[in-house]
Design a protein that fits this description.
There is one protein chain. The protein has helices spanning about 5-10, 20-30, 35-45, 50-60, 70-80, 140-155, 180-190, 240-250, 290-315, 345-360, 375-380, 410-425; strands at about 85-90, 95-100, 105-110, 125-130, 130-135, 160, 165-170, 195-200, 210-215, 215-225, 230, 260-270, 275, 280-290, 325-335, 365-370, 385, 390-395, 400-405, 425. About 35% of the residues lie in helices and about 25% in strands. It folds into 2 domains: about 5-215 and about 340-425, Zn peptidases (Aminopeptidase); about 215-335, Alpha-Beta Plaits (2-Layer Sandwich), CATH 3.30.70. The longest helix is centred in the C-terminal third of the chain and has 25 residues, at about 290-315. β18 and β19 (about 400-405) form a beta hairpin. It contains 12 helices and 20 strands. It is α+β, with helices and mostly antiparallel strands and about 425 residues long.
Length: about 425
């Protein structure tokens, strides 16, 4: 394939499979460790304390779902202090541009601003040795710190790239956000200007690379009825009883183990008192799969169950009067596309393995997760999600921690080399 088209175009081909010969040519076509990139990599190790300070101080700025603005403004200020032309778009994404000469692919390197934690959550970071503990300290304050440190190292070492690099601190990655920041980048702010995409999401070994997207569909389902006194109005259809019927039937749904497909009822709410027939009952349902086809299948089963549960509860009490019958409404609270077609021979995946090899790291593991990369994968843009180095645990909990250990700097180094491979280096 490389004999007939340029490497830049090849990298931009959506999920193109590479032969062994193509892979070898890919690795040789662009000198990876140029003197300037080597200098940047050395800076990342020498100035690792700076990276950790960025991680700590960014994390202490709360960023609840849909309220990431303050953290975004600070990221904008820090990128500008590093000499980058930086803008905040109308949805709150912060974009710092490192221009190339236009001859190679344009790359977005993203970390998300938002956390899962509500307003009022204590965001102070507690440090013990090399371990930092705070809500969001890894997911994704680590990713944001990696972006800043790589942007700084590239600037200090004057790394010149053929392709443009956009360092992006985006909004809306976590559940309620529904990837709104990344969608907006592709559909508006950087429309038709992104050839490849990397998300840096959390800490962990750089050998674990997300190459497939776990898709999801999430509903908030509310059964409604007239309600009434538990004794005086007995015989009135009960929305929570209908909810129970639905949950029981959902629990019996059969899904494949390969491709892995799952379902879960995670929140149940409703009722006013023990002696009242409730006027509403609500559940939140999560369905996931790496296969878009299987995701749609389980979705269809769940939707059919809601009708069955409603009809069974109305039928149990012989309710024919529209005033007394129960009904339900569905609010879609999240849809993430699935993708299982990006294979190990895809150029962007090959580039990740090459970056790890340059650092003497082996044993690559390619996994499926749910991240900002889901969206570009779904529209045919080569995309992967990588870890930021170090160790982490307790993501999405108040006990979340990140430990830089003795070699956490490998995370930013890996990102710096990977960027250079994808966008091409000058000098």
């Amino acid at each position: 394939m490389l004999k007939t088209i340029s490497l830049a175009l090849w990298l931009a081909l959506p999920f193109a499979a590479a032969s062994a010969q193509d892979e070898d040519l890919l690795l040789k076509a662009n000198p990876t460790m140029t003197p300037r990139l080597r200098a940047a990599v050395d800076i990342l190790k020498a100035d690792n304390a700076w990276t950790l300070e960025q991680q700590r101080t960014i994390c202490e700025i709360p960023a609840p779902p849909f309220k990431e603005h303050a953290r975004g403004l600070e990221m904008k200020r820090r990128f500008e202090a590093l000499g980058y032309k930086t803008v905040m778009d109308s949805i709150g994404n912060v974009i710092a541009e490192r221009p190339g000469d236009g001859s190679w692919p344009k790359l977005v390197v993203a970390g998300h601003l938002d956390t899962v934690f509500p307003e009022g959550t204590d965001a102070s970071v507690k440090t013990t040795g090399t371990r930092m503990k705070a809500p969001g300290i890894s997911d994704d304050c680590r990713g944001l710190a990696v972006l800043l440190s790589v942007a700084r190292a590239y600037a200090k070492a004057n790394v010149e790239t053929k392709g443009t690099v956009y360092f992006v601190a985006n909004v809306g990655e976590e559940g309620p956000g529904n990837l709104r920041g990344t969608r907006y980048l592709f559909e508006h702010t950087l429309k038709d200007s992104i050839d490849a995409f990397i998300s840096v999401d959390g800490g962990g070994a750089v050998t674990d690379v997300t190459t497939q997207g776990v898709g999801s569909i999430r509903y908030k389902v509310t059964f409604k009825g007239p309600g009434g006194h538990s004794y005086g109005a007995f015989g009135t259809p009960n929305p929570i009883h209908a909810l129970g019927r639905a949950i029981a039937m959902i629990a019996d749904v059969t899904v494949p183990s390969n491709p892995k497909t799952t379902f879960n009822v995670g929140i149940v709410e409703g009722g006013t008192s023990v002696n009242s027939i409730p006027f509403s009952g609500t559940m939140q349902v999560d369905m996931r799969s790496v296969s878009e086809e299987e995701l749609r299948k389980v979705d269809a089963q769940v939707l059919a169950i809601l009708d069955k549960a409603r009809d069974a509860e109305n039928g149990r009490w012989g309710a024919t009067d529209p005033v007394k019958k129960i009904s339900y409404v569905i609010d879609t609270i999240g849809v993430r596309p699935a993708n299982s077609s990006q294979i190990e021979g895809t150029p962007i995946v090959v580039a990740a393995a090459k970056a790890a090899k340059e650092l003497g790291v082996t044993g690559m593991s390619y996994v499926a997760t749910s991240t900002d990369s889901n969206y570009p994968m779904s529209i045919g843009v080569p995309a992967i999600t990588v870890n930021g180095g170090g160790e982490e645990s307790g993501s999405h909990s108040l006990a979340e921690w990140y430990d830089d250990g003795k070699d956490g700097f490998i995370g930013p180094q890996f990102a710096a080399i990977l960027i250079g491979i994808i966008v091409g280096l000058k000098g």
